[in-house]
Amino acid sequence: MERRLRKELTNLIKDPPDGIVVDPDKISQNITEWTVDVKGAEGTLYQGEKFTLQFKFGSKYPFDSPQVMFVGKHVPEHPHIYSNGHICLSILSDDWSPALSVQSICLSILSMLSSCSEKKRPPDDMFYVRTASKNPKRTQWLFHDDTV
């Protein structure tokens, strides 16, 4: 697990996707907990905004998905992101594959933000935040088509 994480970290530092910034000094303190800065893409609702993702990797990574959530004071307003930072994204739970990586997760989140047409919280945000575990991986997400 540590070898895989070090390789992913090296790749992310050398060739980060646009809008992703990694501070290797912060991560070198604990290879199983990363913070990654995300910048909203130009021409999107999140242009000029900066967010922080927290990754926590368990001992079964990459066979088990990492815990990923937005942290800090500025959590993006998005229909699939709760105000506590939890992200409703299938690759973080049911659709996880060991072939995925931190970079692919970051790209998926950037894509999710970039394709958003209206800044708003999920309809059940208040209830979810009151009742959810602090660990988003303990949530049994119900994925649905946005057009329904």
Automatic annotation (TrEMBL):
Is RNA-binding tagged as a keyword? no
InterPro entries associated with the record: Ub_conjugating_enzyme, UBC, UBQ-conjugating_enzyme/RWD
Q: Which GO terms describe its molecular function?
A: ubiquitin conjugating enzyme activity
For this UniProt record, the keywords arranged alphabetically read as follows: Transferase, Ubl conjugation pathway
Listed under GO biological process in this entry are: protein ubiquitination
* E.C. code: 2.3.2.23, 2.3.2.25
Q: Does the keyword rRNA processing apply?
A: no
Q: Which SUPFAM superfamilies match?
A: UBC-like
Which is one Pfam family of this protein? Answer: UQ_con
Domain of life where this protein originates: Eukaryota
Domain (UBC core): give its ranges. Answer: 1-148
The record's catalysed reaction(s) read: S-ubiquitinyl-[E1 ubiquitin-activating enzyme]-L-cysteine + [acceptor protein]-N-terminal-amino acid = [E1 ubiquitin-activating enzyme]-L-cysteine + N-terminal-ubiquitinyl-[acceptor protein]; S-ubiquitinyl-[E1 ubiquitin-activating enzyme]-L-cysteine + [E2 ubiquitin-conjugating enzyme]-L-cysteine = [E1 ubiquitin-activating enzyme]-L-cysteine + S-ubiquitinyl-[E2 ubiquitin-conjugating enzyme]-L-cysteine
PANTHER family linked = UBIQUITIN-CONJUGATING ENZYME E2
| Protein name, entry field | N-terminal E2 ubiquitin-conjugating enzyme
Organism in which the protein naturally occurs? Dimorphilus gyrociliatus
Q: What is the lineage of its organism?
A: Eukaryota, Metazoa, Spiralia, Lophotrochozoa, Annelida
